[in-house]
């Protein structure tokens, strides 16, 4: 049973939307507590209500809604124009509430930030693309589901839904109704969750105490208690509470002689368990089938060819029924109906959905062989002259070979997510927690589980240990190996104030780290989430398999029937020579074997696996190299790129500008110019602004004076692409480039122009400081070009990709930097929206454009480009605007991303050629096209083995991407 706090929704964000200080004219109608409320089954929804003019309007709305059965409370704020309604989903839904609200005569809009919860679930029983499409359709038909994505290779589904309209139970029910199994992996409120084992909780009163405690505990979003196992799963807000605080809370709830205790419980990894279970299931089913299939094979195909040893099989039991027939029937039946039960179940569910999959083909083929053989046995039992050949071995061997293929396939598919598993395992199991006194001295040190770490904890990282969570170094110096996260081979020096990433390795010194991001907020968790999302996302090239799957099975069944007719009718009327028919069978049996071979040789599975397995391996491999590709769509687009647009600052350059010279042009004292510039630029986050502030402070120190106090800036304004302005005291200050001065009609004199021109020739940027309409000084800023930039641009040119630079900097500086790295085309003095416009112009010319930027001021351009690459993201890996996130600030990864996408698309095409080519060649051979000329035919059991091999070959082909190596290593 799940118990949610009454003021929270499924994702626990409702408290954030309720104003802390309610307006005095807000009117609240409170309905007395109901049983539903006590059980925590309350949802909340908000609407924008227009034309509310006074408190009486609010009262009329609340009176109308308060009468609805299932509405618990209504709050309407006339000033905000909002209505917040708490209701019982079992009694009324959000649509009915909205309609009742509209009936009051006020215009109603959905709140733009309505909750959309997300859940992931394991889907069992999918065999091919048509199965994944069936699951997707079933999910999208659920009321409240906004979006559903089903991954065939990953065997998972990700569902976005409105928690006010549905929940995970209904979603799982919809999947099961479609004939598939579903197990919840995670839901939207699983972001920060802890599992605890309770001790001392033995009676219903104890359970009630724990529930009451957690309901009122700050920071607890919701919880679920397993009363039989005395375990509790708690979802919490890491900014308010943490696992250790919750354990302490439970321990302190004891009273008198009653004591409670809670310890961390780590549930087994569901995905790994499911994978192992599936591998064991197929292995056991295969071995069980072999117990019967091997003897059938021996009695049918080996012993008859060894006369002294196989003669006993020819002994007649009754009429024409031999011992061999009867034994084969007995041995084949368990394989057909016990081991083969999964094919019957799969076929039933597929046909009930009005679709067909591999199970239908296998069931048809094996049933045809088995029941014809049963007919032969019955005919032989009842006739003294009947001579017919049963082929029970066809049915048994066919099922056994298919199971062997599925077993090898699931083993191979498990390896496609190896890279993701390695990422997940990077975080250490334990860490050393320090307790400090008020002076910062260490009081105690204890080893705790990584899952018990809370925000702001001080952790000790000894040499050779892994960093458990993201944090900031507060003491000590060391080198940290970040290659497992960023792909950067050289250890990075770390000192106080530097950031460290969870999962990286401390090399040689002892560090004290303050935890800043824990649980799902860490860079490692974000990377894993991005890779999981990428593996679920469907590439456009997958549409080919989706289209083929719709008519594949009906086409195969038709082809098999035509094959049977094509051999049976000519054989019946003697159109082909009698010697074509083997001596141990008649024309009907020969035709039936050809038809069954066509049924079972065709493989829709290989087509369905061609794309998702390659995307899974590529996205995992990319993550291990520091390149996060957000799904198959980004992969497919990246391989078509023929033009790359680079931002300058922080992309082609190091991104750490420094002032190399300063000059003053007016009668204003240098100290005042520095103070004005520092005060104004201190409000800007731009790297150049920080460089100016740092240099101005150094100038003050050189003069032996420091600003007495920081000046307050009023009317501060950012001018995108040009600079900033504001009022410092009674003076108007502008700090920015020459364009800002021209825009604000400030005269730039000849001496200033000369200084600017001189520095721009050296690839430096000039920042001008204007006070009260007069240029008072200038700072010359340089930002060194990255060492690998020229080599990367040259390599891209060799790949047939042209490079363009777009920057907000002036033309002279931009041209000098472009010349240094080998870029011929430059767009300078461009603001963020202008960058996006330039990209659209290039796209209009028919070019496929990628944008490489820092993901902040370049976000409009990243979105506009065919492929957006955010470079230098560091720990901020979840950049929504980018299609590809490059974790480290290394331009080599641009080449890696494009080359990996090209290799992946080539592999997908090869997979399709293999899968389609196999079916195109296999079906005619199975139909007997070579038999008249060469005497070669494909028996059904061998056709089944070929079908199993085709899926396995596609998965193994995708696995070859794991050996991918970066094409460029700039020394």
Mind explaining what this structure looks like?
It is a single chain. This protein has 971 residues and is of the alpha+beta class. The chain is 45% helix and 21% strand. The protein is built from 33 helices and 38 strands. The strands form eight sheets. A seven-stranded mixed β-sheet has the order 26-38-37-36-27-34-35, sandwiched between helices. The protein has a six-stranded antiparallel β-sheet with strand order 18-17-19-25-20-23, with no helix packed on it. Strand 12 (220-226) and strand 13 (231-236) form a beta hairpin. Helix 14 (392-416) packs parallel to helix 33 (940-959). The longest helix is centred in the last third of the chain and has 35 residues, at 892-926. The protein is globular and about 125 Å long. It starts with a strand and ends in a 12-residue tail after the last helix. Residues 1-40 have low confidence and may be disordered.
Helix and strand layout, with pairings?
Blueprint: E1 2-4, H1 14-17, E2 27-30, H2 35-38, E3 43-49, H3 55-66, E4 71-77, E5 82-87, H4 94-103, E6 108-110, E7 117-124, H5 129-140, E8 145-151, E9 156-161, H6 168-177, E10 181-187, E11 193-199, H7 204-216, E12 220-226, E13 231-236, H8 243-252, E14 261-264, H9 270-302, H10 307-310, E15 316-318, E16 321-322, H11 323-339, H12 341-352, H13 358-382, H14 392-416, H15 418-424, E17 430-436, E18 442-449, E19 458-461, E20 470-475, E21 478-481, H16 483-486, E22 492-494, E23 499-500, E24 505-506, E25 511-517, H17 523-536, H18 543-572, H19 587-601, H20 604-624, E26 627-629, H21 632-638, E27 643-647, H22 648-652, E28 658-664, H23 670-681, H24 687-702, E29 713-719, E30 723-728, E31 731-736, H25 738-743, H26 750-760, E32 765-771, E33 774-782, H27 789-798, E34 802-806, H28 811-821, E35 825-827, H29 832-844, E36 849-853, H30 859-864, E37 867-871, E38 884-886, H31 892-926, H32 931-934, H33 940-959
Parallel strand pairs: 27-34, 27-36, 34-35, 36-37, 37-38
Antiparallel strand pairs: 1-12, 2-4, 3-5, 3-6, 4-5, 7-9, 7-10, 8-9, 11-13, 11-14, 12-13, 15-16, 17-18, 17-19, 19-25, 20-23, 20-25, 21-22, 21-24, 26-38, 28-33, 29-30, 30-31, 31-32, 32-33
